[in-house]
Here is the input.
Amino acid sequence: MNNTIIQQVDNLITEQLKNWPLAKNNFTGLQKVVTREIDFNDKFKIKIQFNPERIRSSAAKVDAKSIQERKCFLCPAHLPEEQKGVEFLDKYLILVNPFPIFKRHLTIPLKEHTDQRIEPHFGEMMQLAKALPGFAVFYNGPLCGASAPDHFHFQAGNTGFMPIEQEIVSLKNTILKQTVDNQMLAIDEYLRKTIVINGDDSKIIEQWFKEVLELIKDYIPSDPEPMLNILTQWTGTYWQVFIFPRKKHRPDQFFKEGNEQILLSPASVDFGGVLITPREEDFNRLDEELIRDIFHQVTMDDGGWEELKKKLSSLE
Here is the structure.
């Protein structure tokens, strides 16, 4: 078959939503998903999605004991019989995610069972984004929202869904470094600290990403790797990479009981501006004050952020 990867993926989505009842029912269920928005001083917005089927991911137990006691649901041998895939780079399987957030939602695991670590795979993330125009590819670190931290994987969803894609052009930023066609920016006043890399030179972008990954270890928890969420997309002429450094997996509210509990476990999509709530009471309760508090708990501290920006801008 000589179809491009994106054509194969389009065909896969069509086939799976027709022939795999679990995927068909849950994607149809997206039509019933309720969304509302909160504006933050007319500078940016946060969307809140009530999506009950995402309870498996939001409340996933990712401690070592729980992972040891379950089969890896991303290993090829354990995939449901109905689940089909498209191979990428002879090492990944592009799969339809049967518990979607997006209208077009993919999970992209390595065929090999190996831990969730971004460093050796960031270049492949860029290749994947370029091969999937119309999709944002995202990475959740092992302590940053990945429900399978024992099996390396990306996810992808249709562009235009997360507010950050549109808001980035109007947000106040600081230029950390640039070449003729590549630029690294820092976004401060956005609830979550954000590094943005725009460019068309994959080698420069990979080098800058490695610099971020190395320097940031001094300022955020970094065992087994620096706590990061990453979004990457190909705009048609250049890559756009969003890096969200963080200090905490889940906010205090996640672990509280009764009316004080909010079952929100922020990952890449949440950092992109869409909070996924599997419980209706949390969907109704979240307001500007609570959202500010939750992001303040999980995003990088101000002091380390300022030092990181200085170091990044001073590197040649």
In short: The chain has a mean pLDDT of 93. Residues 5-314 form a domain with the HIT family, subunit A fold (CATH 3.30.428.70). The longest strand covers residues 34-40.
